[in-house]
Design a protein that fits this description.
alpha/beta, 2 domains, 11 helices, 6-stranded parallel beta sheet, single chain, 277 residues
């Protein structure tokens, strides 16, 4: 149930043991009441709306972020190793359920874990749990990778720790590049990830209500300048995905479509770099 102070949800009195058991061993599925968008997406895929899609993407909250939003009274789950492990196991099962549903269409499946709370691990009172928290997230990543899924870690929070993101060993790093492009490209851990062939989802298109002043060519030029001194820019371009930043769900349909058009324009310019044209 929602907490009356602060953020997150607290376990109802007397139900902590039941909650822990369900997280450890319960059936993990989405339902149309709490995840209507996922089922609408499935229906659209089945109807052929995305018949040109090269891959399908699932996404759900990561274990660190979920554990930062669950409370036993005033005690947050992420600071308790047993509860953190339980949340991690539940997320792994839920992610597998989601990707197995998407794999029925016989195209590659990505699964992104949304982890804005990774940014908290460098600060009290969370930093003493940082190693265990990263291990819990990595357990989910390796479970999905073993099932043949490309796994992305998304973190759009300020002061994102690219080191922590890379330690999880995902296939894809996803972040708010509109805000943090230069910081990311200068980060030694991000550079190593890129030079070892990792994929990067650059969130370069802001989800503002008015994109009339956004020049895709200018945004592309910024990307190119930031990436040029990392290494082979054509190789990086071949491993790049251009996305919007967070917040699409708050836009109107017309605004969302404008965002996608801008991302498509930038992606076309990046593709030319990848093909050396």
């Amino acid at each position: 149930m929602p907490r009356t102070t602060g953020y997150g949800y607290r376990i109802k009195p007397g139900l902590l043991r039941v909650c822990s058991h369900e997280l450890h061993e319960g059936i993990a599925t989405l339902d149309e009441h709490s995840a209507a968008g996922f089922f609408a997406f499935e229906q659209a895929v089945e109807a052929g709306v995305f018949n040109r899609a090269q891959a399908l993407k699932g996404q759900l909250v990561g274990p660190i972020t979920l554990a930062c939003h669950l409370f036993d009274g005033e005690h947050v789950f992420v600071l308790n190793q047993e509860y953190l492990t339980a949340v991690s196991r539940s997320i792994a099962r839920l992610a597998l359920w989601q990707v197995q549903r998407l794999q029925q269409w016989n195209v590659p499946v990505f699964c992104f874990l949304d982890e804005p709370c990774l940014a908290l691990l460098a600060h009290d009172p969370f930093k003493h749990m940082a190693v265990l928290a990263v291990e819990a997230l990595r357990d989910v990543v390796t479970t999905l990778q073993a099932a043949g899924v490309l796994v992305g870690i998304h973190c759009c929070a300020g002061q994102t720790s690219f080191q922590a993101m890379c330690q999880v060993a995902p296939d894809i790093l996803s972040f708010d590049a509109y805000q943090d492009m230069e910081t990311f490209c200068a980060d030694p851990y991000a550079r190593t990830f890129i030079n070892e062939g990792g994929l990067v989802a650059f969130g370069l298109v802001p989800t503002s209500s008015d994109l009339s002043r956004l020049d895709p060519t200018t945004v592309f030029t910024r990307w190119l300048l930031a990436c040029t001194d990392i290494g082979d820019v054509s190789q990086l371009a071949a491993h790049t995905v251009i996305t919007a930043t967070c917040g699409l769900g708050l836009l109107s349909l017309a605004q969302a479509e404008s965002t996608f058009h801008s991302a498509q324009h930038i992606a076309a310019l990046v593709k030319k770099v990848a093909l050396n044209t």
